[in-house]
Amino acid sequence: LSDRLDSAWKKLRGQDKISQSNIQEALREVRRALLEADVNLQVVKDFITEVEAKAQGAEVISGVRPDQQFIKIVYDELLGVMGEENVPLAEATTAPTIVLMAGLQGTGKTTATAKLALHLRKINRSCMMVATDVYRPAAIDQLKTLGKQIEVPVFDMGSDANPVEIARQGVERAKAEGIDTVIIDTAGRLQIDQDMMGELARIKETVQPHEILLVVDAMTGQEAASLTRTFHEQIGITGAILTKMDGDSRGGAALSVRRISGQPIKFIGVGEKVEALQPFYPDRMASRILGMGDVLTLVEKAQEEIDFADAEKMQEKILSAKFDFTDFLKQMRLLKNMGSLGGIMKMLPGMNKLTDDQLKQGETQLKRCEAMINSMTHKERRDPDLLASSPSRRKRVASGSGYKEPDVTKLVSDFQRMRTMMQQMTQGGGFPGMPGGSG
Ligand code: GDP
Ligand code: MG
């Protein structure tokens, strides 16, 4: 057996392996998709290297191109990194649950504080919000206004008080009032600085929060990675909220945050309104990041064919002479799915000198076969001998498919010959000829 023939047959039987060479294109595509989604460059590199290593040597499913299957592996891996399910907000065993919001200025901390409070109120958990941003004059008012709007109390001590003290007293108040959850809104800076980190660390030390949520603007892009690293190293986050997902962003920051902190994204913000908060669903985000809905559908469809393409089942069928026209039709469709029939035929001995014209003829031949098989009854498809012994059946099939009776006769005898060859081949090795040929 020549190597080329061997690989063609392996492809047919779905035993091709995923390798560097047959996924080059897909690798590039995935890399581009991730970068376009604003996943951090280093995160992309590491992720791709890992997935590639995992995919190497995986069996290719029949009828699925290795590159498509690779994309499916990428998707599954992406899902693995993001976590299989939504992780809900922590809940302390003894109330109140203390949530600390962290993040840069303008990312949406204050808005997310109110969104979260409304979300909790809707599931009957009582809330209090604490205003510790004493640096921007309007910040306390902003939270108070939001509090009024969603009917959630806001604790504040004006803008002269110490943020750590405000947080401490806020939690005390919540305890005294039997509140379920207290959410502490904090001040951010435009850039990470040690004052902000120091203050956050002291608030954390003082109130011992159950949840520290990093609020990340989805538009942050590449910097989401270093931002997450700094906050996680210095404060230790337990989760994140990805805001402004209603914009153009494909949400690559989610992957960066998750990869770097190992902590789950818990919610996404999808608008300026207080209602615009959604639980984070890893599968939806994975699809959005890849932006390859079509490819995924394709791969999933193709997987349905696995059962049929399963090499062992196939062999069994051939050996027991149960391989019939229905199987043949499926096999032809698999061939078509695999892309270029010409490419495969060129790998066959004696066929590598085929001209494009001759290849086109081959494709036409397949179409003829398909038309004739489509005109057969199910009984005839299962039992080709019926056709071999009945001229009237052959005539009916011929007129139904728009061909002549001799064409049907030839298809049937070629098929029977092929089946015999296949039986010999599965025992001895070789490649079946194609029935319905003109020669
Ligand atoms: P903070 O400085 O971190 O407290 O940020 P703010 O909560 O004050 O929000 C900053 C700006 O972002 C405001 O104009 C918000 O309306 C807006 N914003 C917050 N979250 C979202 C979101 O999910 N989508 C959109 N489109 N805008 C948001
Ligand atoms: Mg704010």
From TrEMBL:
Its EC number is 3.6.5.4. It comes from Brunnivagina elsteri CCALA 953. One of its GO terms (biological process) is SRP-dependent cotranslational protein targeting to membrane. The keyword Calcium does not apply. Coiled coil: none annotated. The keyword Ribonucleoprotein applies. Part of the signal recognition particle protein translocation system, which is composed of SRP and FtsY. Residues 375-409 are annotated as: Disordered. GO terms for cellular component: signal recognition particle. It is found in: Cytoplasm. GO terms for molecular function: 7S RNA binding; GTP binding; GTPase activity. Belongs to the GTP-binding SRP family. SRP54 subfamily. Keywords: Cytoplasm, GTP-binding, Hydrolase, Nucleotide-binding, Ribonucleoprotein, RNA-binding, Signal recognition particle. It catalyses: GTP + H2O = GDP + phosphate + H(+). Residues 264-277 form the SRP54-type proteins GTP-binding domain. Involved in targeting and insertion of nascent membrane proteins into the cytoplasmic membrane. Binds to the hydrophobic signal sequence of the ribosome-nascent chain (RNC) as it emerges from the ribosomes. The SRP-RNC complex is then targeted to the cytoplasmic membrane where it interacts with the SRP receptor FtsY. Its main location: cytoplasm. Pfam families: SRP54, SRP54_N, SRP_SPB. This is Signal recognition particle protein. Composed of three domains: the N-terminal N domain, which is responsible for interactions with the ribosome, the central G domain, which binds GTP, and the C-terminal M domain, which binds the RNA and the signal sequence of the RNC. It comes from the Bacteria. GTP binds at residues 103-110, 185-189, 243-246.
